[in-house]
Amino acid sequence: MPIATVNPANGETLKTYEAMDEEELERRLRLAEATFRTYRTTAFADRARLLNRAADLLDEDRAEIARVMTTEMGKPVRQARAEAAKCAKAMRWYAEHAPELLADERPAESDVKDSGASHALVRYRPLGPVLAVMPWNFPLWQVVRFAAPALMAGNVGLLKHASNVPQTALYLEDLFHRAGFSEGCFQTLLIGSGAVDEILRDERIKAATLTGSEPAGRAVASTAGQMVKKTVLELGGSDPFVVMPSADVDRAAEVAVTARVQNNGQSCIAAKRFIVHSDVYDRFTERFTEGMKALKVGDPLDEETQVGPLASEQGRADLEELVDDARRGGATVLCGGERPDGPGWYYPPTVLAGLGREMRIHREEAFGPVATLYRAADLDEAVLIANDSPFGLSSNVWTREAAEVDRFVRDLEAGGVYVNGMTASHPAFPFGGVKRSGYGRELSGHGIREFCNITTVWHGA
């Protein structure tokens, strides 16, 4: 895949870049290693000052970088501005909370005495240069939710961003440099995916994080395993959205539309499988389908657009194949399902019902504005359908019954359970999944500690 900005609204190639050569990559790896030796000793207050400055600059740049993101990958520009604001918020959150999240931990005095020590503690120390392999769908947020905690922990980062968002990738490097971080603290590597393996094998890289496809995650995890390096993986998702009879069905249907089509439906944590109790299935289906039909699809730079184009021509083709396979298998298309005429990689909001387990869309992630509807006879069947997926990123449940909430929290196989609301990441809460959605956690204290050396310090009596 060429490293280029291709406008998904019309297919026009706007800017192309040459991949960095081996000499430049070597220079950047040396710089990262050298910078870490000194940056690791900086005080939290100094790191926080730099990160807060980066947040201020990002706020100033919000309108400009939002247009860049929209032009590179097609998200509605209002959502792009919101993404930039969210990134600034996360930077400030980590700047404020990192000292307490990484503070020394003191074991119970009785355990210290029992170990024969006069005193003991647990300290969090940075690992070193971390390689981040990031996707195009949230081109700022995916990077910042790694970079903010990593930098506050004293690590340095090297970013291999998706090849279709090079301008956003270069902006991020420039942002941290303008904020005052040393050049080696955060560097963008303009390279193809084929170069990742060799970089990950380099002894100067101490860990890696990847958000992306399952095949990409397997490749990075395999190499990291051979090299005995820590990894965090956030892969695909096919999140269930369960609606029970006690729910506010109209509100659930309204939120369901947003949950499905946020970011043009290209979000790992977007609700994708809508599992509705038989008692409210018809009502929910009617409201939900009406809401999907009413969405405004169009130019993502138009302030009124709610759904823009998919990020790539191949992404649209993959989505079409899933819908066509379901249609051939007997699924009912309640709305959408046909590629529109005209330029750009648009696909209409689509609702499918009558799904079967043999259909590809039942077990594969639909990365676009396509929703699948399932009817459940009771809570037990709802849980079975929800868990009948290779993925386990997050989940949404709508009910007013406390006992049902307890059951879903106990039994749903997912990294999150959102009750009477849609999944959304926040810097204070851990984010990640189970099963083939990956492992490890981002955000919160759990996320900042993923790339720390958890060190036991023991003093004899």
From TrEMBL:
SUPFAM superfamilies with a match to the protein in the record: ALDH-like
Keyword tags: NADP, Oxidoreductase
Gene3D superfamilies: Aldehyde Dehydrogenase, Chain A, domain 1, Aldehyde Dehydrogenase, Chain A, domain 2
Domain annotation Aldehyde dehydrogenase: ranges: 3-457
PROSITE patterns for this protein: ALDEHYDE_DEHYDR_CYS
Record family assignment: Belongs to the aldehyde dehydrogenase family.
NCBIfam families: PRK09406.1
Record's protein name: NADP-dependent succinic semialdehyde dehydrogenase
